Amino acid sequence: MLQNIINQAIDEISKTVNLAALEDMRINYFGKNGFIALEMRKMASLDDEAKKVFGKEINEAKTQITNAIDTQYKILKTQHIKQRLQSEKLDLSLPARKIKSGSIHPITQAMQELLEIFIRLGFEMKEGPSIEDDWHNFTALNIPDHHPARQMHDTFYLNGNNRLLRTHTSPVQIRSMISGKPPFRFVAPGRVYRYESDMTHTPMFHQIEVLMIDRDINMGHLKYFITEFITQFFERDDIEVRLRPSFFPFTEPSAEVDIRMKNSEKWLEVLGCGMVHPNVLTNVNVGKEYRGFAIGMGVERFAMLKYGIEDLRQMFEGDKRWLDHYSFSGFDIPSFAGGLTR
Fold first, then answer.
1. CA triple 226-340-120, angle to 5 deg
2. Which residues contact 139 (CB under 8 A, 6 or more apart)?
3. Cα(253)–Cα(219) distance, rounded to whole angstroms?
4. Burial of 93 (0-12, 13-18, 19+ CB in 10 A)
5. Residue 186 pLDDT more than 90?
6. For 309, phi and psi rounded to 5 degrees?
7. pTM for this entry
């Protein structure tokens, strides 16, 4: 009788079609209330001699059923793997997924957007050295010896007081005007250095200076140009622009430029500008018949306003989470004609 049950079990096990059904079969025979457990309970009512015989038969049944389950498990496991390989196979002829490697920093993005506008308006790009001398950085720009900007708390001096890290890109204007002839129309982008650090200032930042020198240039041209490039950069036509009187040694008259959205009461300062001081033009041997305007702006300031960045220092911390949020795809960089002129 026991052998008949064993044969039946082996037959049922061999007919299971998946691993779940095989597990159910194992529980039916070896579980707490399974066939083997119930048979083992019968031994309590047998005498010693009968127990030996019955125990041997039960052990043989356990062995045969266990072997049948193990054999069927290997068969079903192999079938399961083949099915997965068939259903989850990869088409190796398909092109690989694109891996994002790097992105465009918001400072670079803002710099490129601004330069693209200026170049489209007919300005040429110029560059100059980051380490300057006193004459190009201060004297030629009508900044006298006693001016506060020359003091150590604003300027990084190198090997004495004659060599320094440039505090603005205005020396590029001086070098370009000395080596050329008017009229001039160019922009000077680059890094500049000042000894200051807070939520809106860092010891190193990026600046763009714009210079236009020609005959009959006036403040009206300056106001029009500023309004035009600000409207294009922020991509809005509801921006109000105002020029507020100020003072810079290298321009006269000078102004700070504030902007605000129409119907807003809050004005935001964005740049400084003015008509180039006659002393600056004299220092670079430009004739009195020429006049022009100069504009200086911090690129980080424009990036913060356009992209909603609150703390300037975060731009230089290298936090990947911040970069993933604020960075741009390489395809977002504006393209423009022309290269750098040194």
1. 35
2. 283
3. 9
4. exposed
5. yes
6. -95, 130
7. 0.66
Asked if 187 contacts 122 with a C-beta cutoff of 8 angstroms, the reply is no
Q: Roughly what angle, to the nearest 10 degrees, separates helices 48-87 and 2-14?
A: 10
Superfamily for domain range 106-328: Bira Bifunctional Protein; Domain 2 (3.30.930.10)
Of 116-120, 138-142, 160-164, minimum mean pLDDT range: 160-164
Kindly state the tokens that stand for 304: 């913060």
Choice among 31-45, 154-168, 209-223 with the minimum mean pLDDT: 31-45
pLDDT at 104 over 70: yes
The label of the residue with tokens 């949020």 reads 325
**Rounded to the nearest 5°, which phi and psi values hold at 147?**
-70, 140
Domain map (residue ranges) of the chain: 2-87, 106-328
- Which of 125, 138, 140, 186 shows the shortest CA–CA distance to 281? 140
Local structure of residue 180 (DSSP, 8 states): S
Q: Which residue has the tokens 């200026």?
A: 118
Q: Which residue has the tokens 């020198």?
A: 213
pLDDT score at 269: 92
Q: Which residue has the tokens 């050329």?
A: 180
